[in-house]
Amino acid sequence: MTTRTIDPAQELAAFLRTRRERLDPRDFDLPPRGRSRRTPGLRREEVAELAGVSVDYVVRLEQARGLRPSAEVVEALAGALRLAPDERAYLFDLAHQRPRTADRPATAAAPPLARLVADLSPLPAMLMNHRFDILAWNSEMAALLVDFGTLPPSQRNAMWLCLLHPEVSRFHDDREHVVRQGIAYLRAAWAAHPEDAELTGLITGLTTHHEEFARLWAERDVKVSGRGLKVVRRPDVGVIALDFEVLVPVQDPDQRLMICRAADEVSQSALDRLCAR
């Protein structure tokens, strides 16, 4: 693979195209057109009509020809394309229409948050920044995944571990689903933090050198998952199903506190055996 760079204007163009092409014209009350459809989704003129902008404007946006749409136009496009809430926020970020903070991303956990992570024992918990860098963890999370303290800082990243760590990458029962969810979140984080060179470097490096990441990144899924179920398959204790919740500290909105609990008695027993070692 050749090295690629991430261009927000090109990404805005590609995102608009892919979201237009996924729409079913039958779901819209549009006037009939004389010519047959040769491509999937809505035509550019149909999106322009729904959004109340000119066809030329949509064409220029989809060709990344230097436009910066206003917040009103972004809102109209989001409605016309029927974007989900996370996709809508992503579009606003790509258009630089959402307020940003000037603070540098945290590279260490604030002491109160680090104490909170420890106090959450026996529930596995860890604190991450918006890049998925792992800033703090308790002993239960280390037992569940890996002893983060033995890793160099560059490898204390949840996405890196899931993709490249020789053991952790095999723990997830549905690995592609986990990777897909992580990429959908990273895409939203990247749009919200275009100034974060380390995040851009992480994404560029994985896109360049990891075929699975590159394939899923190209699908342009955008979603921020705040809760769900993860299934970890440990060769030493068996399957552990975990319900997880992700919380955002009010004073540190770019950080994520993940808390896990066993989803059933069998998983709790396996987790207890794992943590007792």
UniProtKB/TrEMBL annotation:
Residues 23-32 have a biased composition (Basic and acidic residues). It comes from the Bacteria. One of its GO terms (molecular function) is DNA binding. Residues 23-42 are annotated as: Disordered. It holds the Pfam family HTH_31. InterPro entries: Cro/C1-type_HTH, Lambda_DNA-bd_dom_sf, MLTR_LBD. Keywords: DNA-binding. Residues 41-88 form the HTH cro/C1-type domain. This is Putative DNA-binding protein. It comes from Actinokineospora spheciospongiae. The lineage of its organism: Bacteria, Bacillati, Actinomycetota, Actinomycetes, Pseudonocardiales.
